[in-house]
Amino acid sequence: MKIKNILLAIAATAFVAACHNGQQPAASTDDTLLADDTPEEVVDTTPMPMFLYYHNPDNMQVVFWISLAKPDEPNANWDLQQRTRRIASQYTKLLLPNGKFADVKFTGEQTKDPDGGDLEVFALHHDYAPSAGLNYAFENKKDAKAIKYGGTMLVLVTDEYLESHKMLAVKDLSSRQKKMPTTVVKKLEEQYGMKALRSTVTSEFDGGYSFGSVQFKPKGGKVLALQVLACGDSVYSIEEWGNYDKTEGATWNVDDGGEYIPSHILAAFEGPNGIDICFIHGAPESTVTGWMTLRDGQFESFEMGMFYNYIDEPMPFWKKDLAKLQKILEKHDPVFKNVKMTKWTYVWIDNDDEREIWLRSDDEEYGAIFALKGEPQLLCTEQGSNKARLYEGAVSVTGSCGSGCFNMEVVTLKDSRKSRRLQIYRLTAPDNSITEEEYKLDGKTTDKATGEQFLQQALKQEHYLKNPSFNVFNN
């Protein structure tokens, strides 16, 4: 059966018990789906499962999939999102990868970035970049131990849904390269009059159901794959037409290598009207969320949201954070009261997961490097010819302090915080002979041998980031 790409009405809660006798659900301004025909039977307004994007226990949300601004024309998908926002607190059960439900609570909406700007919708960001959506938290944070990876899509349901639906245990077989039974493949070959190229079973769930795909050989300049649900002698399919080129081969998504990849089943439920299957369909640049339903022998797919996947997303830097660092600089040296920092880049001086930030003025005459783990900590500053250089686990600032005067500062890091500090002051005569020299380690005068030994150890390995590229603020 061909996919029905229907828009969903005001119901993140209300997916109609659809497709009875081949009929599609009716349009409404309340708890129903937008479709072509209007069935006369009473619709089921039980909230359907939603999809929660999990990064960590402090960053988990139902990401908005359409603009928050009201469209000029009626849009059922926007209505669905609005309804989801209104009943967000009803979603209290999160299905964990171990098959158990955890209690969660709605903690509020997130629509603005830290500087008050509007956040982007219909995109899946990295954990360090905020996105617009409905935020949730565990009632018991220990439940998060069952989730091994961040950037994971999970299923979120209401108590009302679980009262009328039985969860069917799903077994993931995507790594086993199991083929569809020969009888299933032959039946589909006869139905479509095409020859199968490959088949796969990617999951099985209670009730004797197998889900996967059958991909046919190209025919007449067209290429077809089927998402297949089989149970005993019953075989149901959803058509997925792709593009075919004699040179490029078959394609359904960018970089799929000519092979159709079926949807990934997150959960399956059996209710009074049939089977509900929660799925995601992933591609290198996008993720689709939605439901498949089996109603009175009709197998259909309803796509809810299509999200852009951010791959190489830069870490943001906010005005409020810059203002905080500026105050630290001004307290350290009043000269920075007249200096505006306009350039920045993140650096990882000791090569761990915690980043440091390097600021510079527009003319690059002034600069500063801060550790950001915990409270911001000033590591060093740059002025004039005194420029910073990165090493593995250390940063040095070297330059002139006047005619015949040389100074050097070396700061080492441990666990992304300032560890030790060496200062060297040296005066030279016109013939470059040293007339005066002083070494200070952690603010206390020390001998040259101790200072040089520390220096050699701290600067023995130059950092891989020799010439970092700076961002212009707000670009």
What does this structure look like?
With 475 residues, the protein is mainly β. Helices cover 11% and strands 43% of the residues. The chain has a six-stranded antiparallel beta barrel. The radius of gyration is 30 Å and the shape is elongated.
Number of helices: 5
Radius of gyration: 30 Å
- Overall pLDDT confidence: 88
Low-confidence stretches: 1-40
Largest sheet: 6 strands, antiparallel, barrel
Structural category is mainly beta
Proportion of residues in extended strands: 35-45%
The tally of beta strands, per DSSP, is 29
Backbone shape: elongated
Measure the end-to-end span. Answer: 47 Å
Strand order of the largest sheet: 1-2-6-4-3-7
The amount of helix comes to: 10-25%
Which terms summarize this structure?
single chain, 475 residues, mainly beta, six-stranded antiparallel β-barrel, 29 strands, 43% strand, elongated, disordered N terminus
Set down the secondary structure blueprint:
Elements: E1 50-56, E2 59-63, H1 76-86, E3 91-95, E4 101-110, E5 123-124, E6 133-138, E7 152-158, H2 159-164, E8 166-168, E9 170-172, H3 182-192, E10 196-205, E11 209-216, E12 223-231, E13 234-245, E14 249-251, E15 264-271, E16 274-283, E17 286-295, E18 298-309, H4 319-332, E19 341-347, E20 356-361, E21 366-371, E22 377-383, E23 387-391, E24 394-402, E25 405-414, E26 417-428, E27 434-441, E28 444-446, H5 448-458, E29 471-472
Parallel strand pairs: 5-18
Antiparallel strand pairs: 1-2, 1-7, 2-6, 3-4, 3-7, 4-6, 8-15, 9-10, 10-11, 11-12, 12-13, 13-14, 15-16, 16-17, 17-18, 19-20, 19-29, 20-21, 21-22, 23-24, 24-25, 25-26, 26-27, 27-28
